[in-house]
């Protein structure tokens, strides 16, 4: 397992995309913090960029990488190696290198300019989102044989989580506006890892008052210790479930 | 050494393997023959665990292979089309395999690397290699760990006559050491001097599994090519 992981990481590092991603994040983070007079405002702008960019890059890069590793996978499957360790090494390699890229690109500037609880929550959320979307990419690439289909599915999933899901929730809210849906909203937010991350940070930033009564419910739920733990548990489930599902698929896959 | 019982595998509507039962014993050199698409490669891949059969079970040395992986350290596999990570060099690939299959007790058999003259090409990336050179790399990897079982899928396809002769010599040498060798090939004329048994498949079914001598006696032909031709037209 360790050996295969080593080869995956060396291969990803040689691939310059992750390096470019790191510099892109670094550039964005530094310019956002330098443009805004107030570092809290900078953090908010950075949040919006991170919530779009991190899932997008993580899911697309991982999906393409898994398809491009088909030769590597094929070579190893005929060797005395567990299938599970091949798949988990791919996941481990992608998750660790993309997390490291995020930590260097966005984490370090945040620590430099805004190293309080909000900043740290944001770094944690970014890292979690990276791993969640690598895991979702493993699933997308695991269940489709065709490369174009798999990448298409990844893009759709990203679109769903970053745009369509919110639109659906809004639609739902308008349709049922006569009913008290605030508590249901808490439940809905667990269905989307990006929302979970966003709420977590917005509550830390103390601007939940802008979100009205729903915000107050969120505050009540996520504001306390149990709420925070539950939301990170939710993110953890978003990592484990797609990964285990894809692992199950891969262990039966014909190569 | 390898026994398969009632293996069935379907891809969509096609039955690639239809209720195949077979047992391959140590010391034999078996030719898997049959027309294109008759399921030879699927059978090989099932033995290697690369394809998971729908029904039936396969045993290696008396132990079922499903979900197992250690047994593969006794197998050297040369695929029909060797696919390798494109941006690795030959040396990288060979080192990686050594690293992954590191078994201090096994002595590394680098004879083929020398006879193919691959040392001079070690720094070339896999994507720059010709089809034949790739085949050579595949062959070297199959023989490298002196495994007890060699599975060679179309070993000489794409090799030049000299290399193909060298590979055949190597196969004979390993056969004399009492290893189990499975070969698929469409070049029947080169199999005469190698094989001891013939395993003939058609449409995913086993047609016959005989000793070469038996086959020659039954058909009254001396050469494998003619014997098979007689069966196919009969």
From TrEMBL, chain A:
The keyword Transmembrane applies. Keywords: Membrane, Transmembrane, Transmembrane helix. One of its GO terms (molecular function) is ABC-type transporter activity. The keyword Lipid metabolism does not apply. One of its GO terms (cellular component) is plasma membrane. It comes from the Bacteria. Pfam families: ABC2_membrane_2. The chain crosses the membrane at residues 12-33, 45-67, 88-113, 119-143, 155-176, 196-218, 225-245. This is Cu-processing system permease protein. It comes from Pedobacter nutrimenti.
From TrEMBL, chain B:
InterPro entries: AAA+_ATPase, ABC_transporter-like_ATP-bd, ABC_Transporter_VariousFunc, P-loop_NTPase. It comes from the Bacteria. Keywords: ATP-binding, Nucleotide-binding, Transport. GO terms for molecular function: ATP binding; ATP hydrolysis activity. The keyword Nucleotide-binding applies. Residues 2-228 form the ABC transporter domain. PANTHER family: ABC TRANSPORTER ATP-BINDING PROTEIN ALBC-RELATED. This is Cu-processing system ATP-binding protein. It comes from Pedobacter nutrimenti.
């Amino acid at each position: 397992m360790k050996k295969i992981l080593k080869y995956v990481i060396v291969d990803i590092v040689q691939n310059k995309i992750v390096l470019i991603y790191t510099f892109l994040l670094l550039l964005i983070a530094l310019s956002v913090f330098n443009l805004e007079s107030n570092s809290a405002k900078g953090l908010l702008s950075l949040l919006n960029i991170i919530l779009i960019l991190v899932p997008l890059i993580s899911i697309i890069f991982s999906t393409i990488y898994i398809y491009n590793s088909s030769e590597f996978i094929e070579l190893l499957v005929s060797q005395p190696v567990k299938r599970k360790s091949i798949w988990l090494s791919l996941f481990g390699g992608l998750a660790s290198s993309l997390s490291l890229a995020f930590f260097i690109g966005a984490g370090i500037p945040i620590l430099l300019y805004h190293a309080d609880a909000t900043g740290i929550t944001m770094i944690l959320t970014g890292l979690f989102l990276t791993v969640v979307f690598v895991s979702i990419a493993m699933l997308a690439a695991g269940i489709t044989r065709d490369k174009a289909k798999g990448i298409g599915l990844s893009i759709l999933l990203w679109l769903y989580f970053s745009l369509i899901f919110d639109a659906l929730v809004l639609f739902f809210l308008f349709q049922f506006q006569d009913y008290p849906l605030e508590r249901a909203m808490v439940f809905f937010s667990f269905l989307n890892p990006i929302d979970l991350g966003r709420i977590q940070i917005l509550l830390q930033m103390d601007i939940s008052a802008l979100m009205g009564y729903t915000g107050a419910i969120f505050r009540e739920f996520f504001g306390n210790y149990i709420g925070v733990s539950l939301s990170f548990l939710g993110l953890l489930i978003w990592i484990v479930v797609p990964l285990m599902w894809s692992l199950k698929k891969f262990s039966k896959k014909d190569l | 050494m390898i026994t398969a019982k009632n293996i069935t595998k379907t891809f969509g509507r096609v039955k690639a393997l239809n209720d195949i039962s077979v047992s391959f014993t140590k010391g034999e050199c078996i030719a898997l023959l049959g027309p294109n698409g008759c399921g030879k490669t699927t059978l090989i891949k099932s033995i290697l665990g690369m394809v998971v059969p729908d029904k039936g079970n396969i045993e290696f040395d008396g132990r079922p292979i499903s979900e197992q992986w250690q047994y593969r350290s006794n197998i050297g596999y040369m695929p029909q089309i060797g696919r390798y990570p494109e941006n690795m060099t030959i040396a990288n690939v060979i080192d990686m395999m050594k690293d992954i299959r590191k078994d201090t007790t096994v002595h590394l058999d680098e004879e083929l690397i020398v006879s193919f003259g691959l040392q001079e090409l070690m720094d070339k990336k896999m994507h720059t290699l010709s089809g034949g050179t790739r085949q050579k790399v595949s062959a070297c990897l199959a023989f490298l760990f002196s495994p007890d079982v060699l599975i060679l899928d179309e070993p000489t396809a794409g090799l030049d006559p000299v290399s193909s002769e060298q590979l055949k010599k190597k196969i004979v040498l390993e056969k004399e050491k009492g290893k189990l060798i499975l070969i698929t090939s469409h070049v029947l004329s080169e199999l005469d001097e190698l094989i001891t048994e013939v395993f003939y498949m058609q449409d995913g079914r086993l047609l016959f599994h005989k000793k070469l001598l038996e086959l020659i006696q039954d058909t009254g032909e001396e050469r494998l090519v003619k014997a098979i031709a007689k069966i196919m037209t009969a």
